[in-house]
């Protein structure tokens, strides 16, 4: 049993070292993957779209009837 923790520790150290080498290889400025654009360091941030519907501002909501608000909430939740 005493060998298991030391084996796990060695395994973890080896994995960490391999990940560090991989990161160095991928992010190297002379790397062809970086130059070709297949690997990027900064990716775009995704934007959530609520099903393509128009955005609802607070002024429009303030003028709605309760039934319209309930319908809008049902659509947002996925019901029709």
Protein described:
- 57% of the residues lie in helices and 0% in strands.
- With 80 residues, the protein is an all-alpha fold.
- The chain has one domain.
- It is elongated.
- The model has no long low-confidence stretch (mean pLDDT 77).
Number of strands: 0
Helix/sheet category:
mainly alpha
Indicate the low-confidence ranges by residue numbers: none
* Integer count of domains: 1
Helical content, roughly? 55-70%
Strand-residue fraction?
under 5%
Shape: elongated
What's the SSE blueprint?
Layout: H1 3-26, H2 32-36, H3 58-62, H4 66-77
Key terms:
single chain, mainly alpha, 4 helices
Summarize the structure.
This protein is mostly helical.
């Amino acid at each position: 049993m005493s060998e298991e923790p030391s084996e796990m520790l060695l395994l973890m150290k080896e994995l960490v070292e391999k990940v560090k080498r991989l990161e160095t290889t991928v992010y190297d400025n002379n790397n062809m993957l970086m130059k070709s654009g297949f690997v990027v360091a900064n990716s775009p941030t995704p934007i959530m779209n609520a099903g393509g519907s128009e955005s609802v501002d607070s002024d429009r909501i303030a003028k709605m009837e309760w039934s319209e608000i309930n319908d809008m909430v049902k659509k947002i939740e996925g019901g029709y």
